Amino acid sequence: MRKILGIILLLIVTSCVKTIPGGGMCHLTLQAQLPSGEKIVALQVDNSLPGNQIRNINTGETYPIPVFVNGQCELDVLKGVYIIAFDGVAALPNGKGYKVRCTEHATILTAVSLVQDGENVTLKLQVMQ
Amino acid sequence: MRRVLVILLFLVPLKSFTQEKWSNAPGQTLLYYNDYNFTRVEIRGQFIEQDKASAPVDGTGLRQGEFNAWARHCLDSLKRVEGGVSYQRGVKLGVKMNSSSDWQLLQPYIVLDSVGGDLQREQYRFWARYASRHGQFIWSVHASFRALHEYREADPRPRNITSDLVLGASAGMEAGEYAISLEAAYRKYHQSCSVQFMDPSGSNATVIQSLGFGRYFTRFSGAKKSVDTRFQGSGYSIQGRLEPTSGIGWLAGAGYNAIYLVRHLPEFNEVPVSTILREEATLYGGKKWAHSYVVAGLDGIFKRGYENVIDQSSAFLSLGALQMYRQYSLRASVVGYNEWAFKKVNLGLQPMLAACYTAASDGISAMDWVACQTGLNLEISYRLSRKLYIYAAPRAQFTLFGKSNWCIDTMATIGIEF
Questions:
Q1: CB-based contact A115 B320, cutoff 8 Å
Q2: Which chain B residue has the Cα nearest residue A18?
Q3: Rounded CA gap, B339 and B199, in Å?
C-alpha cells in the first residue's frame, strides 16, 4: 500500500512541478572588471545606499554586497533572478582609487538568473568621472 | 509587520474532523440506514462568535442562513439512492489578511490585502449517491459539486468564485456483522480571485501574493486598481473503512488524500507562480452503541510549497520551482456522543477533546506550536408534529494556543419531512 501511495504521490508532484535540481541556495561568485583591464585590489560598496544591492526581482530578498578582494567576492543567495547594481570605490595596486558603477544588470529586463548551485558572474564596471 | 504576517498565516483552527468523517460517511453507508423513503426541507440559521479570532484569516464570526432539501429513496431492499441541494447565504465577520476563499486548502499561498473587513458569502451545493448490494458484495458511487461566491462591497473588494467537484466510488463486502470497503475519489478544484478597488483616487491597500513566513512576491504585489489570481488543481483520495451493518459495534477507518493547487496570475501571461501540495492521512477507530458512540482519531497533514522562479522577460516564463515551504501537523482527537430520547424531544450531548502539534519551515525561517481544544456540543430536537420538527445545536469551544480563545457556535433548524 505504501508503495502504491508513493507512486501516486510521485506522479502528482512530477506532473505539476518542474523543480530546480539541488538545494534552494546558490553560491554566487562576483568578479569585477574595469574597462581598462587594470587589477582591482579592493572594491568597497556602501550598502546603506538604497540602490546598492543584489535584489531578487520576484520575491524582493536583498543581500548586501560584500567587499571585493582582488576583484572578487562570494556570497550565498536564494536561487532566483537578480538585479545587481551598485556604486563603489575601487582601489588599484598603484594606490589610485576610482569611483565605479555597476549597471549591467540594473533593471528587470537585464537581471541575471542564478538557478544553479554555483554561479559565476562577471561585472563590467564603469568608471565615474 | 513581518512577524504579524507570520503569526496570522499559521494559526490553524482546531476542528475535530474525526467526527465529520464518521457522520459524513459516503456511499454504501446508505445501505445501513433505516429503510424508509423521505424528503426533507430545512431552513437553518447559524451564529458563530469568538472573543478573539483564533485564525484572523477566517474572521471572528459568522452569520449565516441556509436552505437544505434532500431525499432518500429505497429502490428495493438492495438499492438505495439519495440526493440533495443546499444554499447558504451569510457574512463572515472581521476577516483579516486574507482575500482568498478556502484558505485552509491554499494556506500559505493565499492572496491577502492589508485592510480586511466583513466578507459576504453564498454557497450552492448539489450532491447525490447511490448504493447497491449483490449478495455479500456492496458498491456505491457518489458525486458532489460546490460553488462558492465570496465578495466584499467596500474597498478592497475581493470577488472569489470557486467550483469544487468530487466524484467517487467504493466497493466492499459484508462479513458477518461488519462491512469492509475501499473508497476512491477524484477532486477537481478551481478558484478565481479578483481584488478590485472602486475608489477614484486609487487603491487604499496593498494586495499581496503571499509565500508564508512574511515573504511574498514583491514583483506581483502592490497597490493596484485590480489584481486577478487563479487557483486550480486536482486531488485524489483513498479510504478503507470497517463499519457495523446493524449500526451497533466497532468501527475503524484509514484514509489518505492528496491535492495540489497551482496559483496562476492572469494579468502576467497566466504565469504559474506557486504550487501547494497538501497530503493528509487519517486513522480512526471507535465503538457505536444504539444511542451513543466514542471515536478517537489521529490525523496528519503534510504540506509542501513550491515557488516558481520567473524569468526577467515580459513573457514571464518559469525557470523552474524551488521547494520552500514545509508544514507538518499531527492532530489527536476524541469525540463522544450520547443521546436521550423522550416522547417528542431528543437530547444529544457531545464532548470533544483535541490536541494539535504543527511545525513549519520555509528553508529560511522555522517555527512550531502546540494547540489544545476542548468543546461541548448540545443538540436538541423537538418534533412539533409527525412531519414538522425543530432542531437546535449550540456548541461551545475553548482553545488554548498561547492565549485562550472561546467560540460559541449556535445552529437552529426548522424542517419538514414528507
A1: yes
A2: B320
A3: 54
Domain span including residue A49: 22-128
CATH code assigned at A29: 2.60.40
Q: Are B160 and B122 in contact (CB under 8 A)?
A: no
Which CATH code is given to the segment(s) B2-417? 2.40.160
In a domain, A33, yes or no: yes
- Optimal mutation site among A17, A108, A112, interface B, most CBs of chain B within 10 A: A17
Distance CA B396, CA B21 (A): 20
DSSP-assigned states of every residue in A85-99 = EEEEEEEPTTS-EEE
**Domains of chain B by residue range:** 2-417
d(CA B278, CA B259): 5
* Residue partners of B46: CB distance under 8 A and separation at least 6: B62, B63, B64, B65, B66, B90, B409, B410, B411
Cβ distance A58 to B217 less than 8 Å, yes or no, reads: yes
pTM over 0.95: no
Identify the segments of chain A with pLDDT beneath 70. 1-16
Residue A16 lies in a domain: no
pLDDT of residue B355: 92
Query: Which residues on B lie below 8 Å from A62 (Cβ)?
Result: none
Q: How confident is the model over B87-114, as a mean pLDDT?
A: 93
Instruction: Give the contacts of B383 (CB within 8 A, at least 6 positions apart).
Output: B344, B345, B389
Asked whether residue B346 carries a pLDDT value surpassing 80, the answer given is: yes
Instruction: For residue B184, name the pLDDT band (cuts at 50, 70, 90).
Output: very high
DSSP secondary structure letter of residue B53? -
The reply to whether A100 falls in a domain is yes
- The percent of residues in chain B predicted with pLDDT above 70, rounded, is 89
CB contact under 8 A, B258 and A80: no
Number of domains in chain A: 1
Give chain A's radius of gyration (CA, Å): 19
Q: What is the pLDDT of residues B131-163, one digit of tens each?
A: 998 888 999 999 999 999 999 999 899 999 999
Measuring CA to CA, which residue among B232, B260, B273, B212 is closest to residue A81?
A: B273
DSSP string over B129-189: EEEEEETTEEEEEEEEEEEEEEE-SSSSEEEEEEEEEEEEEEEEEEETTEEEEEEEEEEEE
Does some domain include residue A2? no
